[in-house]
Amino acid sequence: MAALLETMCNPTAALARGAVRALLAAALICCGGAIAADDDLYRAQTVVTGQGEPNRVIGFGACLEDVLIKLSGQPMLAGDRRLAGYKSRATEFVSSFDYHDQYAGKPHHDEQGTRDRPYDLTVAFDQAKVDGILARLGLRPWRAQRPTIGVFVEMLHGPKDYIVTSDGTQSDLQRDALAAAAGKRGMRYVLPDTAALARAGVTAAGLLKMTPAQLGPIVAPQGDAATLVGQLVWDDNDLGWATQWRMAWRGKDYKWQFRGVTFDEAFRRGIGGAAQVLSGNGDPGRSK
Question: Rounded to an integer, what distance in angstroms lies between the CA atom of residue 225 and that of residue 74?
Fold first, then answer.
């Protein structure tokens, strides 16, 4: 059985990479199909400098955008001009917030007396007010149980060619990025483990030749997961990753691609595109 990784809606940038790796190294983490609670769907986190109001207001706006995307499943809201007015007065929609000092328990650096420390700002928004914003944008909350996504990704960087797995040491950074992306978009996912890929005869070079239907049973023997297949290829000219994603859902195939991005952004767009499909918000390959 493939090792299972499940992340849910709160985009906890505060999770230490080491803690994420420890979680992934655990034998098997099984889930019972739990979904994000409503209060988590209306909560987001960002990093701000200090606890002053100007930076806090900016943080509120960034968190509001993340919540609107996570709650609706529509990643195309990112950077949408229609959000500008709402973000500028995001304070009106906040129900609570708190800070966590990233340097808590650590001594101040010599030069830190003249500058503020970084804080994780966690913001919860009023549900009725956020639902109202979505309605005015022509969207609605996606509160149905969200399918688990079986994720298969090939990383090709020069001579290095491998699949991101739940237990491979060379996948550490990609697993962290995937966990952050899934948390930000309120999605659950599962990665294959090395042994499961070997038993199925799946290799990095042959991954894109396989269909989502062939790959899905490797991570979800009961067929209860959507399958997302991707490839990230490093491009020296773009100084970024050329990325392609595909998935099949309810009898239809979806494909989307982009280039010149970090692998963190590549995973955000991959998971975001899957959320767009699963939430019924259209084809990410046709979105602008």
Answer: 20
Among 180, 195, 196, 274, smallest CA distance to 229 is for 274
Contact 241, 281 (CB under 8 A): no
| H/E element, 243 | strand 240-249
Predicted confidence at residue 106, as pLDDT, reads 78
Residue 87 CB neighbour total at 10 angstroms: 17
- Cβ atoms within 10 A of the Cβ of 219, count? 26
Q: 230 near 42, Cβ under 8 Å?
A: no
Identity at 68, one-letter amino acid code: L
Q: pTM (2 decimals)?
A: 0.83
Q: pLDDT tens-digit profile of 23-32?
A: 333 333 333 3
| Residue 225, pLDDT above cutoff 80 | no
User: 246, 253 in Cβ contact below 8 A?
Assistant: yes
Contact call for residues 265 and 79 (beta carbons, < 8 A): no
Q: Residue 17 — pLDDT band, cuts 50, 70, 90?
A: very low
pLDDT confidence bin for 112, thresholds 50/70/90: low
Digit-coded pLDDT (tens) for 172-185: 999 999 999 999 99
Q: Which contacts qualify for 20-25: CB closer than 8 Å, 24 or more apart?
A: 20/175, 20/176, 20/179, 21/172, 21/175, 21/176, 24/166, 24/167, 24/175, 25/167
Under DSSP, the state recorded for 193 is: -
Residue 100's φ and ψ, nearest 5 degrees, are -130, 120
